[in-house]
Amino acid sequence: FQEISSTLTTQFKVISKTCDKLKNNKRLRTLLTILLAFGNHMNGGTKKGQAYGFDLKILPQLADIKTFDNSKNFVMYIYEFCDRNYPDVLKVVEELSPMLKRASASLFYYYYLFIYLFV
């Protein structure tokens, strides 16, 4: 039990540290602010316009939003906008990727440990 408890504590610390870094990351905050501003602009004049936030579940769907001429999707457009106006924000991917991989590995460990212990 001690070994499992120690491992779980370590894995929990990795996930907790990742959450703190995500919450306090200025580049990520700026990127999410840009996404919110563009979303509010696109939804202006509707009940969805002028939102104070958005559900993170929408993020995977952003690639499905196309320009009028179908030449770009929303993700490509935001990337180009950030590249021109906020190039530092684009470093968020390389900055957070290693940390997110470690946290993902921890989550998978929890999942398999749960199955092993309780199923």
Q: What is the number of helices?
A: 4
Mean pLDDT: 85
The structural class is mainly alpha
> What share of the residues lie within helices?
55-70%
From the 3D structure, determine the CATH topology.
Methane Monooxygenase Hydroxylase, Chain G, domain 1
- End-to-end Cα distance: 17 Å
The CATH H-level homologous superfamily: Formin, FH2 domain
Count of β-strands: 0
Q: How does the major sheet shape up?
A: none
CATH class, please? Mainly Alpha
Q: Which blocks of ≥5 consecutive residues have pLDDT under 50?
A: none
Overall tally of domains: 1
What is the architecture at the second tier of CATH? Up-down Bundle
The shape, in one word, is: elongated
Taking all Cα atoms into account, the compactness measure Rg is 19 Å
- Helices and strands, in order, run as HHHH
Protein name: FH2 domain-containing protein
Pfam family, one: FH2
Domain FH2: 1-119
InterPro entries: FH2_Formin, FH2_Formin_sf, Formin_Homology
How is the topology of this model organized?
Elements: H1 2-24, H2 26-42, H3 74-85, H4 92-118
What would your notes on this structure say?
The chain is elongated and about 60 Å long. With about 120 residues, it is mostly helical. The model has no long low-confidence stretch (mean pLDDT about 85). The protein starts with a helix and ends with a helix. It contains four helices and no strands.
Question: What keywords describe this structure?
Answer:
119 residues, 66% helix, Methane Monooxygenase Hydroxylase, Chain G, domain 1, mainly alpha
